[in-house]
Amino acid sequence: xxxxxxxxxxxxxxxxxxxxxxxxxxxxxxxxxxxxxxxxxxxxxxxxxxxxxxxxxxxxxxxxxxxxxxxxxxxxxxxxxxxxxxxxxxxxxxxxxxxxxxxxxxxxxxxxxxxxxxxxxxxxxxxxxxxxxxxxxxxxxxxxxxxxxxxxxxxxxxxxxxxxxxxxxxxxxxxxxxxxxxxxxxxxxxxxxxxxxxxxxxxxxxxxxxxxxxxxxxxxxxxxxxxx
Length: 228
Ligand SMILES: NC(=O)c1ccc[n+]([C@@H]2O[C@H](COP(=O)([O-])OP(=O)(O)OC[C@H]3O[C@@H](n4cnc5c(N)ncnc54)[C@H](OP(=O)(O)O)[C@@H]3O)[C@@H](O)[C@H]2O)c1
Hints:
This protein is α/β, with parallel strands linked by helices. It has five helices and eight strands, in the order E-H-E-E-H-E-H-E-H-E-H-E-E. The relative contact order is 0.14. Bound molecules: NADP nicotinamide-adenine-dinucleotide phosphate. The site of NADP nicotinamide-adenine-dinucleotide phosphate has 31 residues, from helix 1.
């Protein structure tokens, strides 16, 4: 009798558009079971029997609590957890503005951190926690004076990833990814990005399934480690 391998499971936040949507499709094409989030809980772009959409707004504690409840009811332990959801309302703006600053931190930093903290026990010890950050969060590489909230939120998220990797000590492994400059709607109309969402997703997939170093900060576009 032939032994059928268990379908691996991946949770992807922000799966409704851009990089997260392309990533979800890529994992499904590679026979993963995918649970993807969006704020509405509807992702009509994907109609695949191995895909389950759930509602998650990282800026709202009740939405996070409901998503955790729904995930618990599914009784799934994930092999891969990709924290992709993120916003950049002050991308390319020179002056910081308090409302967008607070919103950016709520989603990119506070919401993501506390969602990961609550999810740790639902990831297999041999699994992987991936954080889609940005090289705009690298302090060493920063020579710009714009996008204050976005850069700061990603720099703080990068620090959290280090602390998380120290705590988990490789079980599961943690990595931070810069997905490249990708043609999505994150900054209104990012049409001049060098990569399509599909090209970025392919690079992310290849990195995630590889035996990467714990606590790596990896650039998908150049295939190199980034400075923190
Ligand atoms: N595009 C680039 O060039 C680039 C470069 C570096 C890093 N990144 C990072 O890559 C990630 C994906 O970005 P993208 O370019 O694909 O952006 P995008 O097309 O705007 O997609 C963002 C995703 O996040 C979700 N989202 C937005 N607000 C949310 C909230 N409050 N709670 C939970 N989910 C929320 C959106 O879902 P709904 O709106 O349906 O809820 C959507 O699925 C982000 O973390 C971004 O910082 C992107």
